[in-house]
User: Fold Putative damage-inducible protein DinB from Edaphobacter modestus.
Amino acid sequence: MNEPMLTATEALNWNQTTSASWRKLLAAHPEILALPCDIARTATVAQLLQHIVAVELRYAERIVGLPETDYANVPYDSVEAIYATHDRAMEFYRQALDSETAWAEQIEFQTRSVGVLLTSRKTVLFHAVFHGIRHYAQLGTLVRQHGYKTDWYGDYLFMGATRAPSAG
Assistant:
């Protein structure tokens, strides 16, 4: 049986599309950064976004074998600073995907919440990509509760889908 496979590049593109939509909304409404937030033990939306991009960057650095950026050194004082970190992480992921990365190789690293883990680079990549997607979905609910409307669908279904012509 030939099963369809979601590739790492497709998953990364979903993350990138989602991030770009949030970047656009936040650039138009930077006041959203100051909204109170209790997702992932944060106090503001800016801190949640720091968490999202810090995970992206630190896990990308782990994959490519670079020293991890200290969490406290990931800026979140502006939309531009937050997404500069995201862009840097995406460069590392693309570099890893375009090279002969040993995806099955186990790497050991210290997490902030559960101690030392040992897992494959592939698992680290997919965790980082879907971690951001999950938190962006939570953020969508939060900003709607504060009166902001998103103008995109975050579901993977809309990655390349178009409306079918009306039958009639």
